[in-house]
Design a protein that fits this description.
single chain, 179 residues, alpha/beta
Amino acid sequence: MRLHALVPDLSSARAAVAAGATVVQLRRKGASTEEVVAAGQGFPELGVTFVVNDDVEAAIALGADGVHLGQSDEGAERARVAGLLLGRSVSTLEQALAADADYLGVGPVWATPSKEDSDPPIGLDGLREIAAAASVPVIAIGGVDASNAAQCVEAGAAGVAVVRAATDPAVRTALDAAL
């Protein structure tokens, strides 16, 4: 679960896998389940862990490995019943400790232009605090790129999630050097 690439389509997913992504997360904010399912065709054949963002029904329909849910997203129980890997977004220690999840997406670590409604950045200190207390893997997200990915691992994250840097092979190189 070292490098999560959040991508909008199969072409981007292929490029992210070629750049070293070990998890691809289909992220289509505001799309209907049908639109997510249409966009997700071919993802299961990429040979990496496939996660769908926010939509349990689409994850099930696509045969995804998992689903990633935000704080206000419903469906965690349905995901568990379906046997999906469950990721949850958290930005505080309290949220992390309360989350029923297989992994946590923690952040934003830094300011990010890819999510307009994100919480304030928690910085490396916030990431470190959550990673030290969490009983599941922590994946740092928010403003992460090749210049700072290793700092996230050094702060205790098991990996990073990237949006803008999803196809940059330098992110994987930085992570490999940090481990």
